[in-house]
Amino acid sequence: MEFLFSGRVRRLAIVLFWCALVFSVVMALLPHPPELAADKMGDKFHHMLAFAVMTGLAMLAWPQAERLRIIERLSFLGALIEVAQAIPVLQRDCDIRDWLADTLSILVVASIFWLIERKRARQ
After folding, report:
1. Which tens digits make up the pLDDT trace of 33-53?
2. pLDDT value at position 41?
3. Quick one: pLDDT at residue 4?
4. Which regions of the chain are under pLDDT 50?
5. DSSP assignment of 56-76, as one string?
6. Cα-only R_g, the chain
7. Is the dihedral of CA 97, 102, 105, 107 positive or negative?
8. Could you give the dihedral angle defined by the CA atoms of residues 102, 66, 58 and 48, in that order, rounded to the nearest 10 degrees?
9. What span, in angstroms and rounded, lies between the C-alpha atoms of 30 and 81?
10. pLDDT number for residue 1
11. Alpha carbon of 68 to those of 41, 91, 104, 114, 120: distances in Å?
């Protein structure tokens, strides 16, 4: 499990985190995003997948960071995306349930990392 927190994995996670963040924000703000294979799963699935991936990458990229701060900032990003989607020219829908889905997935992934870290600390 130690490999998850090595310098090489951390650097890769930082790059992938920023790529995932840019991709997620761009896709969320495009008036007509391209079709994806996951479209069949629905909009909430997109939200939860994007924020689960970003959370996992953030936890790997910044292992020394306060976990609540990562949770707070990613949840705030989800809220900002929803506010931006209220801009009429984007032709998107602002839905608090999307933000709740984002936050739920953030909490689930953060909890999994917390359990892994707790188990590592016992060994």
Report:
1. 888 777 777 778 889 999 999
2. 79
3. 58
4. 1
5. HHHHHH-TTS-HHHHHHHHHH
6. 15
7. negative
8. -10
9. 11
10. 45
11. 29, 33, 14, 11, 19
> By the 8 A CB rule, do 59 and 10 touch?
no
Rounded to whole angstroms, the Cα distance separating 94 from 88 reads 10
Tokens representing residue 17 in the block: 């985190």
Burial classification of residue 24, based on how many CB atoms lie within 10 Å of its CB (0-12 exposed, 13-18 middle, 19 or more buried): buried
Domain boundaries, the chain: 2-122
**What is the end-to-end Cα distance of the chain in Å, rounded?**
11
In one-letter notation, the amino acid at residue 24 is S
Q: What is the dihedral of CA 27, 91, 38, 50, to 10 degrees?
A: 40
